Amino acid sequence: MKNLVRPHHRGVTLLELTVVILLGLLMAGMLMGLAQQQITFLNLLSRQNFLVDEAPLLNNYINRVISKADRFSVHAAVPAAGARVADAAILGAGPTLKLTYNLPDGTNRESVLYFRRAALGNPGGLFLRTFQPGAGGALNTEVTLYSATSVTTNIIFSIGAVGSPNAGLLVVTLNGPQNETIAFAGTTQQ
Fold it and tell me: Environment class of residue 11 by beta-carbon count within 10 Å: exposed (0-12), middle (13-18) or buried (19+)?
């Protein structure tokens, strides 16, 4: 009598192979989606570098310098290298802030805080220029508080006009590369 039972071969059927391939493709698709989401998130985070890293750092530098001043005034032009502020104070927005410190001996010391964009051969950044006490005091030091990167595009100082919500307040406006604008407001002048 003939044996009708076929010998058992090891292997997979076409249906099992199809299920395994489909599960593998499904998992690969999910991993590709997760990788794309991670890349998108990292790009978003790198575009927000100004808001996360630069703005708080600049706020800290500016706050430390301005909080020690007894008086301040905004000026429309950045002074020439090593020079004092030459133009009259304005009640509005400008790139330069003149700071006055009262010294214990009754004299005043002046400083100029300004932002300069990086140009060919000219490093950009936030600079503090300090002068010797007295009316004709010579330049004492010029310190770079912050070296500008391509991230910060501008810093504007302004004092709010009477009748505005910012009346008498010093407002420092920082502009970033993605058209972000952050404004920090300080107290009124003494």
Answer: exposed
Buried b (16+ CB within 10 A) or exposed e, 137-150: eeeeeeeebbebee
Q: What residues does each domain of the chain span?
A: 11-46, 53-188
| CA atoms of 181 and 14, how far apart (whole Å) | 62
pTM of the entire predicted model: 0.67
Classify residue 91 by its DSSP letter: S
47 Rama sector, left if φ>0, alpha if ψ -120 to 50, beta otherwise: alpha
Single-letter code of the amino acid located at 48:
Q
Contacts 24+ apart (CB under 8 A), 88-91: 91/159, 91/161
Q: What is the pLDDT of residues 34-74, one digit of tens each?
A: 999 999 998 888 777 777 777 788 888 888 888 888 888 88
Radius of gyration of the chain (CA): 31
pLDDT single digits (tens) 130-162: 887 765 666 677 777 777 665 667 787 887 766
